[in-house]
Amino acid sequence: MFRPARWARRRPVAAVLTLTALALLLRLVALGDRTVHWDEARVAYWTLQYVRGAGFAYRPVIHGPFVPLVVAPLFERFGPTAFAARLPVAIIGGLAPLSALLFRQPGESAGVATDRLPRLGLSDAETVVLAALLAGTPSLVYYSRFMRSDVPLAVFALFALGFTIRVLATGRRRHVVAAGLFAGLAVPTKENVVLYAACAVGTAAVAVGWPAVGSLLPWRESAADRPPETALRESLARARAVAARHLPAVPLALLVALVPIVFFLAPRGPAGDPSLGAALAGDAGWLALIERATLGTWETFRSSLWTGSRSHSYPEYAGKLWGYLLVGALPVAVGAGAAFVRELRSPSRPIVVPLVAWGVASMLGYPLATDIPAPWISIHLLTPLLVPAAVGWVALARGRAWEFTVDRPADDAADRLPDADARKRYARYALAALVVLSAVQVPLVLAATSITPPLYVNVLAQSAQPPDDLSPMQATVAGAADDGGVLFYGEEYYLPNESVDRTPPADGENWLGWWLNRLPMAWYAEQADAPTAYARGADALSERASIPPVVFADPSEADSAAAVLDERGYERTRYELGLYHEQAVVTFVDKSRLGRGRTNRSAHGWPIVGVRRA
Q: What is the DSSP string of 1-56?
């Protein structure tokens, strides 16, 4: 009889590879079916503008350039589809379970004398559980099927952490270089990589100081073995020895990290000077390009909206973010909590407490730092808790989290703890309850988020996720592309001119708020290569010599537009654009003019993009 648990313990590498295949399947099936979120539309819009020759440079409004720049070649090859836009993030998220192998305790086959090393790595069972959490945690699955930078940042940070653990567990310097590579890949993903760096420094400090703090805990089994001063001296000595041993590899690691940083953060085409193309052609110096990609990017970030002050309610934001963590990653939170409780009593993994401290710092810090309490922030709360969660779940399965006693007087019968058999029985009950809860919660959340269309109860979907199927709107815009395109009507959709949005706004430009109101319609227009026009009111609309076959109006101004368009044969349709019915658009369509004279189209109906980048 085939027993998956026993097979996974005996063949952990095969089990991790199987879970990786499952993770890829969960992320790739029906990847393009969900209607594009406003944020996806915004980033995809400027990615397609870059493909069509607009140039590209770091703009904080769309976060780091990593995702746009890896999506751009897919737009060129396969067309500007939702599937192509989400594919790189889906693949990165699907490959995340492979990072579990980096945390596995090296054995004799690796040529490492494990008896002389602290138990930093995970057992085979813990490695498989970590891979399972990375494969199936609902938050990770949902936002791996989303054109956002949060999952790439988390996955690259996890690989960098894994190689760092590998350095400490094996003593091999090549892992320092690998950690530098993934840290360099994390930098151009999203601005909160700065918070990851700060948390990493804090985690290292906790790792060095925790042995001394832990020895002060009165209930800890080994508390009397070493005084706090001795524990601290020994921990500092180990840290100095590790630093001295691996310091020669740090310059090479920094150089390797600089490669993806410069490649992704350097301007492209006419968007900045010097540009990557000019440096490759020999028309600009590499030192100037490196300075532009590093110091120039930092100055742009420092003056951006992400570094401004926050005036929101901390309890409100904290409650929402913690709720997203529990709904989207309950097994991670439960497992990390179990590992932390166990570590307080009987230390076995030096990495558990520092990583839980990272997670707690993130839970306390992100409600203060973030501008909106979006569900994707939970990705950064759960990432440091994944490894402790794997330790905790295996401990729960084996009953170890419950194997502790408290010394009490022999005659204190009323307060005496249960005997060993009772504790094991309680452990089984608690484990069964947690397993059932997780077994029910995970597929339910997956079904309500990543598999079915957005629902009102889909708490992992941010409010700017359209609940309606917008494919009819998308097809309508594509049909109007060769006969006048689309027109945006009313104050809500004002722009200074129709070409101002060719690149993301720079400092001092204040048109973004109006343009965001045009999403996701602006993306559908750009996707179809349809021209856009604007009319501020009914007079401006009626005075036009020709009105495009598709007109978008805010519901508050739809009646004034209808006074002009109804008599010309336009039909009205309302679409909900916000998950909680906070935004909507009214579309006026002259169906008699759709699809006429379609030229310059691919076999899939998309405009032939070509390679027109500068």
A: ---HHHHHHH-HHHHHHHHHHHHHHHHHTTTT-SPPPHHHHHHHHHHHHIIIII-B
Token couple for 20: 């990786």
First-to-last alpha carbon distance for the chain, in angstroms, is 61
State pTM to two decimals: 0.89
Question: What would you measure as the largest C-alpha separation in the chain, in angstroms?
Answer: 98
Q: For 112-124, write each residue's pLDDT tens digit.
A: 544 344 578 899 9
- Strand spans (E) along 485-611: 486-489, 532-535, 550-553, 571-576, 584-589
DSSP, residue by residue, 167-183: HHHH--THHHHHHHHHH
pLDDT band at 613 (very low <50, low <70, confident <90, very high): very low
| Amino acid at position 68, single letter | P
Residues 6+ apart with CB under 8 A from 590: 547, 549, 550, 568, 569, 570, 571
Please check the confidence at residue 357 and state whether its pLDDT lies above 60. Answer: yes
> Could you give the CA distance from residue 611 to residue 614 in angstroms, rounded to a whole number?
9
**CA 266, CA 296: separation in Å to the nearest integer?**
9
List the structure tokens of 32: 């393009």
| Among the listed residues 592, 529, 504, 520, the one whose alpha carbon sits nearest the alpha carbon of residue 552 | 520
Q: How confident is the model at residue 235 (pLDDT cuts 50, 70, 90)?
A: confident
Residues in the chain: 614
**3-state class of 514 per DSSP?**
helix
Q: What share of the chain is helix, strand, coil (3-state, %, to 5)?
A: 65, 5, 30
Instruction: State the Cα torsion 542-546-549-553 to the nearest 10°.
Output: -30
Q: Which two tokens stand for residue 257?
A: 């990290």
Burial environment of residue 589 by CB neighbours within 10 A (0 to 12, 13 to 18, 19 or more): buried
- Residues paired with residue 607 on neighbouring β-strands, in sequence order: 601
Residues in CB range of 303: below 8 A, 6 or more apart: 507
Cβ neighbours for 566, distance < 8 A, ≥ 6 positions apart: 572
Q: What pairs with residue 584 in β-bridges? A: 576
Residue 452 confidence (pLDDT)? 65
Contacts of 145 (CB under 8 A, 6+ apart): 27, 31, 34, 86, 89, 90, 93, 450
Retrieve residue 497's tokens.
């001119």
Q: Is the pLDDT of residue 604 over 50?
A: no
Q: Tell me: cis bond preceding 274? Omega within 30 of 0 counts.
A: yes
CA angle in degrees (0–180, nearest 5) for 41-141-577: 30
- DSSP codes of every residue in 89-133: HHHHHHTGGGGGGGGBPP-GGGT--GGGS-S-SBPHHHHHHHHHH
Note whether 537 and 560 are within 8 A (CB): yes
